[in-house]
């Protein structure tokens, strides 16, 4: 039986996995999609800075000494070891990017574009893996699980945005 592999880069894989994890942790699908996108964006920013692709923002010394109180409706959600800036909106919790709520429909469209016809198969494999852990367990192991199944790409700048293969059978095999 042939293995099911998807040529794709890491950002949409992390976005989908983080959304699946967020749902397993109790967030509704729309909030989970935005949290997944928020996490992937923060990771991409960090990696881009490390590789010298993005300039690191410099903080003024006074800003580091005293953190202002969060504005009304602003909060952060811990997901896979990262604090995701979030907003409470009339539609529910949404991760934010550049001070604006991320729209779940845009994340869904992004995932559909990147995964194509394989989106539901990928989501199903990831959901199966996530269900093998209690929410508390998953919260602590989710990123290490991602590291075990994420597509392999070249190191450094040459790997930036490169596609690898996401092996759905590998994801399912990680289920306890």
Describe the 3D structure.
The chain has 7 helices and 6 strands; from the N terminus they run E-H-H-H-E-E-E-E-H-H-H-E-H. Helix 1 crosses helix 2 (29-51) and helix 2 crosses helix 4 (104-115). The chain is of the alpha+beta class and 176 residues long. The strands form 2 sheets. The protein has a 4-stranded antiparallel sheet with strand order 2-3-4-5. Helix content is 51%, strand content 17%. A hairpin with a 2-residue loop joins strand 3 (82-89) and strand 4. The chain has one domain (5-53, 71-173). The chain has helices at residues 10-24, 29-51, 61-65, 104-115, 119-131, 135-149, 168-173; strands at 5-8, 74-79, 82-89, 92-97, 100-101, 164-167.
Count of DSSP strands: 6
SS-based class: alpha+beta
Specify the helix fraction band: 40-55%
Q: Provide the residue-averaged pLDDT.
A: 84
* Major beta sheet, strand line-up: 2-3-4-5
- What kind of oligomer do you see? single chain
Shape: globular
Domain count: the total is 1
Q: How many angstroms does the end-to-end distance come to?
A: 22 Å
Order of helices and strands: EHHHEEEEHHHEH
Contiguous helical run count: 7
Low-confidence stretches: 59-69
């Amino acid at each position: 039986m042939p293995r099911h592999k998807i040529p794709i880069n890491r950002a949409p894989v992390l976005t989908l996995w983080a959304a699946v994890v967020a749902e397993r942790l109790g967030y509704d699908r729309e909030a989970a999609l935005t949290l997944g996108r928020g996490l992937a964006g923060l990771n991409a920013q960090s990696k881009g800075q490390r590789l010298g692709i993005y300039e690191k923002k410099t903080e003024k010394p006074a800003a580091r000494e005293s953190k202002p109180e969060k504005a009304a409706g602003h909060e952060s959600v811990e997901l896979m070891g990262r604090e995701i800036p979030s907003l409470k909106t009339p539609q529910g919790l949404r991760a934010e990017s550049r001070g604006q709520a991320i729209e779940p429909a845009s994340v869904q469209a992004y995932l559909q574009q990147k995964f194509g016809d394989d989106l539901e198969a990928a989501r199903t494999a990831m959901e199966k893996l996530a269900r093998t852990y209690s929410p508390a367990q998953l919260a602590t192991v989710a990123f290490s699980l991602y590291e075990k199944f994420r597509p392999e790409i070249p190191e450094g700048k040459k790997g930036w945005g490169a596609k690898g293969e996401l092996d759905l059978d590998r994801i399912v095999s990680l289920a306890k």
